[in-house]
Specification:
Distance between the termini: 51 Å
Largest sheet: none
Mean pLDDT: 92
Shape: flat
Strand content: under 5%
Low-confidence stretches: none
Structural class: mainly alpha
Helix content: over 70%
Radius of gyration: 15 Å
Length: 92
């Protein structure tokens, strides 16, 4: 049987993982100056924001629905990375 703490732990671990990936990608971008690393770091930063909004929506602010904001953050993340894939010029 799973307790009520399991979803909270999963939400928190997803946030920590995406924030750590964003940090590592940003650090690599600052060393290598590759545009693909920049776009990936931006995408993971927005995904971390999305995961933070999930935590707020599911655990902290239960009286309001943050689903539109969560969807906007995930759409922005995917759009940011897609724009980077299309318009990157120096890594071709």
């Amino acid at each position: 049987m799973t307790g009520g703490w399991v979803p909270s732990a999963v939400y928190l671990l997803c946030f920590i993982t995406s924030a750590a990936c964003a940090g590592l990608l940003l650090r690599s971008y600052l060393n290598a100056r590759s545009s693909l690393l920049f776009w990936s770091a931006g995408c993971f930063s927005l995904l971390a924001l999305n995961n933070l909004l999930v935590i707020l929506d599911m655990l902290v602010i239960t009286s309001r629905d943050l689903m539109p904001w969560r969807l906007a953050a995930s759409l922005a993340a995917a759009s940011f990375l897609l724009f980077g894939f299309i318009w990157r010029g120096d890594d071709a």
